[in-house]
Structures are given as C-alpha cells and as structure tokens.
Amino acid sequence: MRKPTYALPVSGTTAFSPASPHSVWMQPIRRIALGPGEVHVWRIFLGSRVGREEYCSELLCDRERIRAEEYFFQKDRARFVVVRAVLRQILGSYLDLAPGRVPIVYGSRGKPMIEVAEGIPPLHFNVAHSRDLGLIAVACDCRVGVDLESVRLGFEWMTVARRYFSTRELTGILGSPSRQQAEAFFAGWTRKEACLKAIGCGLTSWPEETEVSTDQRGGAVLLAAPQEMLPVSRWRIVDLMPGEGYRACLVVESAEARVKLWDWPGQPLEDRPPSPESYLTAAGAARVGLSPMNGSEVSNG
Questions:
Q1: 146 near 137, Cβ under 8 Å?
Q2: Handedness of CA 17, 152, 163, 130 (dihedral sign)
Q3: Is it true that 32-142+258-285 and 148-251 share their CATH fold?
C-alpha cells in the first residue's frame, strides 16, 4: 500500500488557554503523521474563507452541492460549502488524492465515509460546524464523532433539554449553580450528539438510550448507550474548547486514543494531490517528524 504524503507549512502556534490541554490548538510544523491509536482534530476558521464558496463548490460532489442548497440563508450555504471543501482537502492530504477525487460515500444512516477500495487506506472521519467555526476529526483505526455548538445567549435550552434529555441528565443540569446551567446543557448536548454521530446517527435516533454526564463537577462520561455502543467502556469522551462562545466534544471508539488538536493552516484550496516532498502519513505507516510540541495532545484525564 502506498504511503500518503502531504505538505504542511512551517507555522507558529495558537492557543486560547495554555493551562488546559483541551483548549490548546497548534498549527502543524513541517511534518506530522496520523498513526494507529491517534485521532487528529482540525479546527477551521470559516469566516476568512466565506466568499470563496463558488470555487470551493467545484470540489464537491453532486450530493454535497444539493445539500448546500437546502440551507435557506446564503451565509449558511457558504459555510457548509467551505467546510466540506476543506474536509476534502484534509482527507485528500492523508490519502494522497486531489480533493475532488476523495471517494466519499454515505452509509445507510447518511453518515459520510471513505469508500473501501484497493489502495485506499482505512480512514474514519466526522465533521461539525457552527457559525464561523468548523471541526474535523480523523482517525485510521476507530470510529469518531464530533459536535460543535455556538453558545447562544437567551437560548431556551430547557425546552430542548426536556425533549431530548433523560431524567438523570436533567437532574445533573439542574443540580449545577443557576449561572452554570446553560453551560451544563451545552456540555451535555455536544457529548450526546457526538456519541450518536460516531455511530452514524443524530439526535432523532436513540436519544433516550444515550445518556451522558451533565454535572459540571464531574468529567465527561458515557452513562448509557444503545446496543451498538456497548460496552460503554470502549468509548472515550473528550470535551474540547475550540474558542470563546463555543462548546465542542469528541467521541472516540478507543478508551486509550491519543488526541491531537490542530489548526488548519489555511492553504489555498486546489483540486490537486499534495506535493510529495513532505510527509503526513496515515493508516499505520511510520510516524515521521512528530515531536510533543508539534501538536496539542489531550490527556486521558
């Protein structure tokens, strides 16, 4: 099997809060690799790319273009198109393919995935975007789900919580101090939705069977799950802090997964394979040129 290659520029680093490993996002330096047991989460700032959606649309498949047209507001359509184009560029980087040639297909529940084919390494991914931010999670040997929400002031979260949350989840939220209850809701919401996205569902499927911790005094825990996610001990939930005013969560089908947080460096979107002179390897190929400072690794805590 050929080894995918990908060029990433030398860049600086960015971080919202160096004290928290969940909120430090690093820009890649020279060469990185996606190895077994690793998950890469890419953060994309969409605002700077809105306006290029006509070009980005050329990288998408017909199904993606049709879905983009379902958005009522033009800005929402633009964000969807841009995040999907960047997704194709990231996946193409791992697979050594031009973005427009990345073989994305859809499962029975509508979850996008890489089509299994000779010469294509196995790759799992999931996407989320909200307002001007997008997140893309990628792994080579385990399913992943990611959710991202903009924390909106004045949002009537209790109405939504009563519909989708269990009694135990509601109790956890209401047990938090009143000023922290909205934050507890968004924490629970992103955890719950990321869990269901990992198995190709949304909150319209099995929300009552999927329970997550919502008590702000504890960590992120999967308390109950549909049959497909059992045993729950094999899943890891990681709260992410992608920026002020946002809440996010990553769910990984590996309790020991090593999670690295990256900022997408904003290279031009072009429909051509990555250049071969530097190395980003995937699907079990040797890890090349990666040091602890090249990415923010989320601890198991």
A1: yes
A2: negative
A3: yes
pLDDT at 24: 85
Give me the residue spans of the domains in the chain: 32-142+258-285, 148-251
Phi and psi for 232 in degrees, rounded to 5? -70, -20
CATH 3.90.470.20 fits 148-251, yes or no: yes
Average pLDDT for runs of 10 along the chain of length 301: 35 35 73 84 80 71 79 84 89 88 86 84 92 94 96 90 94 92 94 94 79 86 91 94 94 94 70 42 31 40 43
How far are the Cα atoms of 46, 159, 212, 239 from residue 184, in angstroms, in the given order? 26, 14, 11, 12
Paired sense of beta strands 236-240 and 112-114, if any: unpaired
User: What kind of architecture, by CATH, is found in domain 32-142+258-285?
Assistant: Alpha-Beta Complex (3.90)
**Residue found under tokens 């690794």:** 297
Q: What is the pTM of this model?
A: 0.82
Closest to 184 measured CA to CA, from 152, 161, 216: 216
Query: Environment class of residue 25 by beta-carbon count within 10 Å: exposed (0-12), middle (13-18) or buried (19+)?
Result: buried
Instruction: Tell me if 138 sits within 8 A of 123, measured CB to CB.
Output: yes
| Cα distance between residue 28 and residue 263, in whole Å | 7
